[in-house]
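Re-running the complex after MR caught last week's input typo. The corrected sequence lines follow. Everything else is unchanged.
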Amino acid sequence: MKQLSGRLLSKLSCNAILVSANQNILFLTGFDGFCKGEREAYLLLTKQKNYIFTDGRYTEAVKKFIPNFKLIEISPSKKFTDILKEIVVKEKIKKIAIDEDDISVKEFLKIKKIVKVCSDKNTIQKLREIKKPYEVSQIKKACRLGDLTFKHILAQIKTGITEQELSKKIEMFILSKNASISFAPIVAFGDNSSSPHHVAGSKKLQRNETVLLDFGVKINNYCSDMTRTIFFGKATDEQKRIYETVLEAQNKAIKFLESSIVNRKSIKCFEIDSVSRRYIISQGFPSIPHSLGHGIGLEVHENPRLSPKSDSILKKGMVFSIEPGIYIPGFGGVRIEDLVFYDGKNPQLISRAKKQIIEL
Amino acid sequence: MKQLSGRLLSKLSCNAILVSANQNILFLTGFDGFCKGEREAYLLLTKQKNYIFTDGRYTEAVKKFIPNFKLIEISPSKKFTDILKEIVVKEKIKKIAIDEDDISVKEFLKIKKIVKVCSDKNTIQKLREIKKPYEVSQIKKACRLGDLTFKHILAQIKTGITEQELSKKIEMFILSKNASISFAPIVAFGDNSSSPHHVAGSKKLQRNETVLLDFGVKINNYCSDMTRTIFFGKATDEQKRIYETVLEAQNKAIKFLESSIVNRKSIKCFEIDSVSRRYIISQGFPSIPHSLGHGIGLEVHENPRLSPKSDSILKKGMVFSIEPGIYIPGFGGVRIEDLVFYDGKNPQLISRAKKQIIEL
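Corrected-run output:
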């Protein structure tokens, strides 16, 4: 950590980095006890020390699990900003890098009064883009359980089941395998599938309806994410044409990756998006109303983004989704999503559930 | 909503309110499809219109479920800030109120370039403090299932079970009743219970250990939260003394509420905290290393805060926890938590699981 903070600080030309985002704290400390969505801790990496600020609910745990950080207990009468001020004076800190995507206006206005601030330029998020072997192995484990869940859930699909019920079955199966869900499963029947992020509701499944399933597993804090679309009954010719177009859009993106890796040095993430997107449009369908894909790790959605405006460059060690989709309001939608790990030589497909058209 | 925005705008002396926090959007629209922890939508309430900004993944759902808001689809080429600029010009907006706890520095710096901003003074959070009858009924439902879960889980406690396994059992039971958890259950055995927010781990339960269980249910987006501490075997005299002190600290807070309601007009939330805290200290134990309690509703932790520095005043319709605790590092801890609904006449205890000392 000492070495890391030195390297980061020299890059950012500042004297300290304030780490606030929950997943960045988890990444740097390995401690997963802080509640996501609440501000329960900060890390401060300076040239002299690594500090962790948290309240009395966590001091015991921090002493035990994060011994390499200097613990500073904060409370309503011993505020974070007061102690920050003391450290700034003591260590003669001139400028602190903050995470501009995570620090709130209220925090910013308080910190600015104490010390000059600058952007941390997403330094920690960028470190997280490149997965270490342990991280890849956890994501792969999560994907394997995702594949198994899909197989299990296919047998549960029957007339009259509701989206909510099927969603719960996904959740229960994952829990029963001693893992967690990485997000609330998306289950969409019939024309609900034209809503890419449909909230599973009380709709009951009828024959000849589409079933879109998008779910993820979390193992040791690492996430998977997969989407399959199947047909409960016979797919119509139009449904088949949509399905095959989406599948081909995904294949084209993967083939583009394979050939680019062989032929070139640098692949831009927006180019991968563009391959799938252009193919779908060329077949007469509307453009994908979302990015083609996203990085994944401690969070379901993280860098790199595979979107039309992404400035990311593909790097060895990245794990990301490729998930083209076609959505026709009033008719339905199809999305197929798999995770890809770029090992420096090949784009490895690490979710493996069946993708040939399924008619139940 | 029209009426609401007019009322809010006149209070804040600005021309528009930007609503960004996920739970505030849910509160104002009733739509629970946006992912918590990601910025997927904004609301803009102006004198003329109510707008909702979101991307293509949600346009179908918004049209269906939030028809009273003007939908504006944003995308990488049609950015939120560009459209905001157009509206600011068109509606001659001079100043926009923002949620300083939620808007990030990056967003703030962009918005500031377009229009003057001011704090929304937690207007929506304050509205959420006072629960409507429907909201109270949902929290009560969640509490009832919490009580049932506790009863069910008591029968699952046995030698050798791990914290994680017991935590999963809580989760599975809640899911099987068609509800969700409101947060990852805290299960702490033995001296792990001295960590108020212990993360359930691989520790196996042995005879004569404390079992601290803190979990919540979510029904129709409304949360419950309850803590019970039991003894797996005979409690020692010291454990009993700690338990009875915590229970009495909770009783004293409730009695203070009852008598204050009868005698006085205004009750400050910090006073309730103080009653329990002072009692625990008076018995020779360390002060509670957290607040005595917190409001609850769409979020597990929301206003009002029952903490030493809280400036909230108790109002009819508030629902909050009362959860004193004593934690002795290396020995263990006890916390007892219940939810209270203040109906204007009485502090109603709405979680009802047994609180007499339990020795299994």
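None of the earlier attempt is carried over here. Chain B has a mean pLDDT of 95. Chain B touches chain A through 49 residues (CB under 8 Å).
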